[in-house]
């Protein structure tokens, strides 16, 4: 059985848990991270030298980096519906996953740490406002993409890309600041909210 190491409140751990739910894949989870077993311990660093969650163990195979983990799981245990084998369709899924992990994440990072986590190191009002503006700009890009596809981020059907993007959209709606109205993003969020995996791990009160 797949073993996932990481605390359930971590957005990157939740990404892996939601993927398992979409695949109907049984798993076990151990609590690692702040407030639980230390990721700086020698035991954990032997699995991931970065000292970060999640880590996945599948038999004798160990893997870290959440997007790599969910790609692996969808390839090994999926039927191709989440992560297509055809090169162009897969590249489109990868494109939006990579966009979320680099461009979108970078945009919301300061605002989220300031407004939700109340981090003392993220209380510069100008930096926070700039982060909110940049976050809104990238969400407008997502809104236009969803208008174009009429469904999900990489096309008309739910795919692996919707898991990381959907978790970022969850943060968008749970962060207290004045957001521009984005109709396609709102419709997308409503669609995601009907999925059991999202209800369990995406919109579970842990933005």
TrEMBL record:
<dbReference type="InterPro" id="IPR004046">
    <property type="entry name" value="GST_C"/>
</dbReference>
<protein>
    <submittedName>
        <fullName>Glutathione S-transferase</fullName>
    </submittedName>
</protein>
<feature type="domain" description="GST C-terminal">
    <location>
        <begin position="86"/>
        <end position="207"/>
    </location>
</feature>
<feature type="domain" description="GST N-terminal">
    <location>
        <begin position="1"/>
        <end position="81"/>
    </location>
</feature>
<dbReference type="InterPro" id="IPR036282">
    <property type="entry name" value="Glutathione-S-Trfase_C_sf"/>
</dbReference>
<dbReference type="InterPro" id="IPR040079">
    <property type="entry name" value="Glutathione_S-Trfase"/>
</dbReference>
<dbReference type="InterPro" id="IPR036249">
    <property type="entry name" value="Thioredoxin-like_sf"/>
</dbReference>
<dbReference type="Pfam" id="PF13409">
    <property type="entry name" value="GST_N_2"/>
</dbReference>
<dbReference type="InterPro" id="IPR010987">
    <property type="entry name" value="Glutathione-S-Trfase_C-like"/>
</dbReference>
<dbReference type="Pfam" id="PF00043">
    <property type="entry name" value="GST_C"/>
</dbReference>
<dbReference type="InterPro" id="IPR004045">
    <property type="entry name" value="Glutathione_S-Trfase_N"/>
</dbReference>
């Amino acid at each position: 059985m797949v073993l996932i190491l990481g605390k359930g409140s971590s957005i990157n751990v939740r990404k892996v848990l939601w993927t398992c739910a979409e695949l109907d894949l049984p798993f076990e989870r151990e609590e690692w991270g702040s407030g639980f077993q230390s990721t700086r311990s020698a035991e954990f660093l032997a699995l991931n030298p970065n000292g970060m969650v999640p880590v996945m163990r599948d038999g004798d195979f160990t893997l870290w980096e959440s997007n790599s983990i969910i790609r692996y799981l969808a390839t090994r245990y999926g039927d191709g519906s989440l992560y297509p084998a055809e090169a162009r369709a897969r590249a489109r899924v990868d494109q939006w996953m990579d966009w979320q992990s680099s461009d979108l994440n970078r945009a919301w990072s300061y605002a989220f740490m300031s407004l939700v986590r109340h981090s003392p190191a993220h209380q510069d009002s100008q930096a926070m406002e700039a982060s909110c503006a940049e976050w809104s700009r990238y969400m407008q890009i997502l809104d236009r993409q969803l208008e174009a596809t009429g469904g999900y981020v990489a096309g008309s059907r739910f795919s692996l890309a919707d898991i990381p993007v959907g978790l970022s959209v969850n943060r968008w709606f749970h962060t207290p600041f004045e957001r521009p109205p984005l109709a396609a993003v709102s419709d997308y969020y409503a669609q995601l909210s009907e999925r059991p995996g999202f209800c369990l791990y995406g919109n579970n009160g842990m933005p």
